[in-house]
Amino acid sequence: MHKVAPQRATERAVLTHVMLDVYGVDFDTLNDPDVIGEILTGAAATAGMHPLAEPAVYRYPGQGLTVFLPIRESHDAIHTYPEFGYASIDIVSCALAERAQRAGDHVVESLGGERVESDIVYRGFLEDRGF
Known about the structure:
- With 131 residues, the chain is α+β, with helices and mostly antiparallel strands.
- Helix content is 25%, strand content 37%.
- The chain contains three helices and six strands, in the order E-H-H-E-E-E-E-H-E.
- The chain has helices spanning 27-30, 33-46, 97-111; strands at residues 13-23, 56-59, 65-71, 74-81, 86-93, 115-125.
- The longest helix is centred in the C-terminal third of the chain and has 15 residues, at 97-111.
- It is globular and about 45 Å long.
């Protein structure tokens, strides 16, 4: 089970995992691999993160995408469900938590959804492993 951060966790955790569920997003936006790829690369740029490659895209039969952007700090991903107007976003970073949150904010603003649910999990507490 993942540990949700106690106070000052951002100073002790190895990774920040920002999880976002965005609802009410336009079908065409969610089904366009170029748009979703640009959103991820824009998020990385906004947060000062460093892409290692172009976004990798998998298009599901009919509709929907998985778009993955490897970054030096870890990775960003968006999974889209156009038929539901829904996107699931993961921003995982070993950089400062504020940068991961900034990347997530960029994605949410770019998608323009009607409702957002979010969670942040801080992972890899080194003192818990005896370091």
